[in-house]
Amino acid sequence: MKEITIALAGQANVGKSVIFNNLTGLHQHIGNWPGKTVEKAEGTLFYKGYFINVIDLPGIYSLTHFSLEELIAREYIAEEKPDVVVNIVDATALERHLIFTLQLLELERPLVIAVNMIDLAEKRGIKINSQKLEEILGAPVVPTIAIRGKGLTEVLDKVIELTEKGYSPKRFEYGREIEDRIRKLEDALEGFESPYPRRWIAIKLLEKDEEVMKLVERENPEVLELAKKLSAEIEEIHGHDSSIAIANERVGIVRQIVEKVVEIAEERKPSLGERFDEIATHKVFGYLLMVIIFAGMFLTVFGIGDYIVGFFDELTESLSETWFAYFGSGILSELGWAAVESFIALLGIVIPYIAPLYFLLFLLENWGYLARVSFLLDNVMHKAGVHGKAGIPMILGFGCNVPACLSARIMETWREKVITILMTTLIPCSAVTVVVMGLTGRYLGVFWVTGLYLFTLLMVLLVGRLTSKILPGKPVELIMEMPSYKTPNLKTILIMTWLRIRQFIYIAMPLVILAGVFIKFMDLTGVLSVVSDLMSPITVEWLMLPKETGMLLIFGVLRKELILLTLASLLGTTDFSAALTPNQMVTLSLVTIFYIPCIATIAALVREMGAKGATLITVAEILLAILIGGVASRLLLILGIT
Amino acid sequence: MAHGAEKRLADLGIVVGSRIRVVRKAPFGGPIEVEVAGSRFLIGRRLAERIIVEV
Ligand SMILES: Nc1nc2c(ncn2[C@@H]2O[C@H](COP(=O)(O)OP(=O)(O)O)[C@@H](O)[C@H]2O)c(=O)[nH]1
Ligand SMILES: [Mg+2]
Asked: What value of ipTM does the predicted structure carry?
């Protein structure tokens, strides 16, 4: 059987995920790009006697070096040389998408263009002459409606046709001043070994692309010098930075194309979505709606989740009886049970909480609502040195830190992602809220809880601001698409949720089981209380908490609510005021909020930032918790709260 | 204007001479929503202020 590899490339929100999932269904593998923490989705299908590999390239805005996603996409196209690149463009915004198409053409791989969302375009009175577009671009153009699966087989037909018949990419010329200089650089690059086309390198050099400049400097420093001289000449002529001059010309070329192929009917009345946006972005109702949507989401998930958790509790209990009746109560049996229990506990948070939250997040994203959240939160997030998109993971964090950290991938650059994840892991999740309510809330009142939460939010913003000062690089300004509202595609969302949850379980399982067994082992051998005692300079002397606190905090790593449960079982009662003073309750609440992401969140961190990043964040947060806890308890003393 | 940002805008089709319509401004100094060639974008306020608009 013949095998072909195709890569899907397109900007965010064009329907790339719908097409990818429609083509490959559950035959997918989700992983990370080698050495990077950007998600890589690969899938396969059979079609007309071909075995087709489909690579979903990360969603991109342009092929200019601005984010990791873009770098990955162009490296993949140039180095792995997929047989065909399928470029998905949005029929309702052809101009913007074709700018990207031109850049893809410059990479000189066989290209098929899918003009998606033809249905929406029609509704808006936009008509596209795809035949003409095909002639102009010199590459097959297929109109598609991804959500109805329309046009997708035609795309595959064109792909096969290209691989059988061959393809010669069309080249678009820039204006004389620029074109001449591209040629000069091309000549100077004669003999330069690289997977990238020579013309592409020449253009990128004039665009001052950092990666390409580094590439060329290593082998041909004199070409780089020439490029700098030529760029300066372009700047002289155009009065702009040369990268802007080139981008401007691309826009010019695209506008000419659009004029020839697009027909727009006259004025249309505002769509339902546009009218809804008046509310969704309103300075009062917008925030109100946002609170209602997310609060509704959390309440539903946790309401239903409680039932499911009840089921898991019963399952654990009955299984444990059977287990110990069968294996006895030796140390091995205890450890074996700890492994089983940890696994069930993991499923006990994934199934009722993480999966539904993830699903709802995808739903809101697909619908287009998340962009409205960025709109509303950009201002607050700026205070923390990031832009509005970071608000989304943070809101999710109140439900569960795991989907929250996993969603931080929407941030464009490594820097923004690190800051966002750091802030997100400090957001008190529902399990932490249980602890805070059970201690501070129950004995000191809701007023104190509110105070603690306000303080926490302040700290989160402060941490964001500090890290954004410390980390290298400049803050990225918010530039994002405000997509129109769309009908979400349920099948795509279900497949995406399921595959990502499955992958998360694979990553988290070893970590969670290992931690569970290890802590059980320490407990059984009495090492745990020794460790807890060893921690007493911190827990007892600095934090002024009871000496069992070490034990609580260690169990809390598994799941934060275990802090309360362990405390109750140590005390033999749930009246915590017998063991803790008000001062200690507040201090313990604060430490619980800050001290460490739970083991499942650490697993999510490993997926998003690698083991090193996860360790770094964990250690930093332990130190932060110790600092805050100690200072707070002394301040409270001064305020007369003992 | 920072070249990086200007370049990103250009890649979205927002260049000197583009016809931009301001759709709305976010409350409390948040971003500005603009419409260019049928697409809508959010642009951070500080960046937006540096885009000179002639009516
Ligand atoms: N009406 C319509 N909606 C579409 C079409 N293709 C995708 N969508 C919707 O557009 C939104 C974004 O699609 P998605 O695949 O997530 O975009 P991605 O960011 O490129 O992966 C989703 O709500 C889809 O259901 C289409 O051809 N017509
Ligand atoms: Mg997608």
From this structure: 0.91
